[in-house]
Write a structure and sequence with these properties.
- There is one protein chain.
- The chain has 2 domains: 64-183; 188-259, no CATH class.
- It contains 3 helices and 16 strands.
- It has helices spanning 2-18, 173-183, 230-236, and strands at 64-69, 80-83, 88-91, 94-99, 104-107, 112-116, 121-124, 130-133, 139-141, 144-149, 155-156, 163-167, 220-222, 225-227, 245-247, 252-255.
- Strand 7 and strand 8 form a beta hairpin.
- 27% of the residues are buried.
Length: 259
């Protein structure tokens, strides 16, 4: 209230002074001809935004996994194959291989076992045949699609009794599938029976004693021993082909029902 009274009083006083006839006109204050000074602080230059460049291999390394529901023919198989953001691939928590953005796949000893190019072509060391893994995770061999991943993440692959489900971002499907194929390749370790002619295990019919997993001509294995045909590998395990499970890997892995 006091402020309003004060304003009204000043206004009335100003009007009264303006009405005097003999009052001199007030002198105008000199105009400031100087340009207004810029009082704003200079802005710091911002770094340009650089778009992420695609890798030579087209691989996107993001955390993803394949969950495996074991089937009757493979009760001892893995339950989970996982990929992390650094390209490490684990099978049931055990690191087995590593993917790199240049498209190389290395085993736990750092040896390159496979390569993938930008168009998805995968070449395994010691193998002449190649496969193509598309960005959506589908696999093509000799122009025939042999594996796909549905919208629900379910992996469809002929002659595979296990239920396998992909979990993760869609852009990681290609990397996850090459991880899956490479991880399923039998690795040589101390528990692998020797395959030379001096081995304590007597060679089975059709066994290729001069080859080891990964060598050309080793199409299917049983307990680390190489065979050219599924029939011979299954017989080495003590069962017929009808009762034998062949894991979809390179090379294939034969297993017989436990007695």
């Amino acid at each position: 209230m006091l402020n309003k009274i004060l304003i009204l009083t000043l206004a009335a006083s100003l009007l009264a002074s303006c009405s005097k006839k003999n009052e001199e006109k007030p002198t105008e204050a000199p105009k400031n001809t100087e340009a207004p000074k810029n009082t704003e602080a200079p802005k710091k230059p911002t770094a340009p935004v650089v778009a992420a460049q695609p890798t030579a291999s087209g691989l996107v390394l993001k955390a993803a996994k394949l969950k495996v529901e074991k089937g009757e023919n493979n009760p001892d198989g893995p339950e989970e194959i996982a990929l992390d953001d650094e390209g490490n691939v684990t099978v049931d928590g055990k690191t087995v291989i590593k993917l790199a953005t240049d498209g190389s796949v290395t085993d736990k000893d750092g040896k390159v076992i496979a390569k993938i190019t930008a168009d998805g072509t995968v070449t395994f060391e010691g193998e002449d045949e190649t496969m193509i893994i598309a960005e959506d995770g589908s696999i093509t061999v000799k122009r025939e699609t042999v594996s796909t991943i549905g919208d629900d993440g379910l992996l469809a692959m002929p002659e595979m009794s296990e239920k396998v489900v992909f979990e993760g971002p869609k852009e990681a499907r290609r990397a996850m599938m090459i991880a899956f194929m490479a991880a399923m390749m039998p690795a040589e370790d101390a528990s692998t029976p020797p395959t030379s002619v001096d081995a304590k295990v007597a060679p089975a019919k059709g066994e290729l004693t001069d080859l080891k997993a990964g060598d050309k001509g080793c199409n299917v294995t049983f307990e680390g021993r190489c065979f050219k045909t599924d029939v011979d590998a299954c017989k080495a395990g003590g069962c017929d082909l009808a009762d034998c499970a062949i894991a979809e890997s390179m090379p294939g892995q034969a297993s017989c029902p436990k007695k």
